[in-house]
């Protein structure tokens, strides 16, 4: 079987896997993505609010954590959906405000980097989340343990670097390794959302929070990388 035959076979098989997802779960996934898109818009408003009012900082960081905690501990009943939606949007706003300083500095440095980073993040997120949708059910669920172990290892290395040096090297490891880690979580979280939905967990607000955190994690790291690359070329 040549390359084109293998490619056609994979595409056909992948589409069959997608069609195996039940119609209610498909509607749920679409609702999750729509909710993520709304959260990203509100987050952009948070960035803009910081640039106007200088509200971002430690307070908004804790605000994001507090709103996320409140969302996850509020009943997922239909009657509480409005409150949970408010918590999600408040968390997204706080996250945007917390990123306001960094985003503002990038805009002053070169606004085109911000656009490139966002487009690249959308492409990466869509590609890997789409791959998880088209993959066989539970095919990537094994990633959960691997990703948790990798995150724990990076945290341990970060802690050790503060005592034994190598902070610059550790920053590079956290930047590029962290990007791979978050991309892995996009795949894992997407399949986990499908699996939970198939079992009756249609909590699109909580699922949207998971993917929103993944998206922001990719965006921040891609933005750092692009600024770093641009700076290196600027000074050479």
Give a structural overview.
By secondary structure, this protein is mainly α. The protein has one domain. Helices cover 85% and strands 0% of the residues. It contains 9 helices and no strands. Helix 7 (143-164) runs antiparallel to helix 8. The longest helix is centred in the last third of the chain and has 32 residues, at 167-198. The radius of gyration is 19 Å and the shape is globular. The chain starts with a helix and ends with a helix. The model is unreliable at 1-18 (pLDDT under 50).
Properties at a glance:
236 residues; mainly alpha; 0% strand; globular; disordered N terminus
The pLDDT mean sits at: 85
Q: What Rg is obtained from the alpha carbons, in whole angstroms?
A: 19 Å
Helix content: over 70%
Low-confidence stretches: 1-18
Structural class: mainly alpha
Number of domains: 1
Largest sheet: none
Please count the beta strands (DSSP E, at least 2 residues each).
0
Individual helix count: 9
What separation lies between the terminal Cα atoms?
48 Å
Instruction: Write down the secondary-structure element order.
Output: HHHHHHHHH
Q: So what's the overall shape?
A: globular
Question: What's the layout of helices and strands?
Answer:
Elements: H1 3-19, H2 23-53, H3 58-72, H4 81-98, H5 100-109, H6 111-134, H7 143-164, H8 167-198, H9 204-235
Helix pairs in contact: 2-4, 2-5, 2-8, 2-9, 3-4, 4-9, 5-6, 6-8, 6-9, 7-8, 8-9
Organism: Selaginella moellendorffii (Spikemoss)
Membrane topology: Multi-pass membrane protein
GO molecular function: calcium channel activity
